[in-house]
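note to self — DONT lose this again. spent like an hour looking for the file last time. sequence + predicted structure for the chain T wanted, 124 res
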Amino acid sequence: MSKQELVVIGQDAACCPGLSAAPLDEGQAVELAKVFKALGDPVRLRLMSMIASRGEGGEVCVCELTPAFELSQPTISHHLKLLRQAGLIDCERRGTWVYYWVLPGVLDRLAAFLTTPQSTGATT
C-alpha cells in the first residue's frame, strides 16, 4: 500500500501559509501545481468527488467508479494513478478489486491553503 502524502501543503500550517499570506517559493509552486493539474481534468475531478463524498475514512471500489464514465477501465485506472501520484488519494488491492480513499487531511490542507484570512469587521 502506498503512503504518499501531499508534501507541499504539509501537516504543519507553518510549512506552507495560505496563498494570500506569502508568495510560494519555486519548489512549493512545482509541487502544488501537480495537485492542481491532477484536479484540472474533468474526469479526475469527478473521480475525486466520488471518492471524497464517501466521507472521512470512506472508500470506494473501482468497480463502482468505472460505470459512471463512458471510458475504458484502463483509462479510469490511469486517471486514478495520476490522483495518487499527486498525493490526493491512496488505494489497496483486495482480491480482484482496488479500493480508493482520500488521504487524511488532504482536502482540509488544500482548502486552508486557498482560504484568505477574514479581516475583523469584514462583511460578507
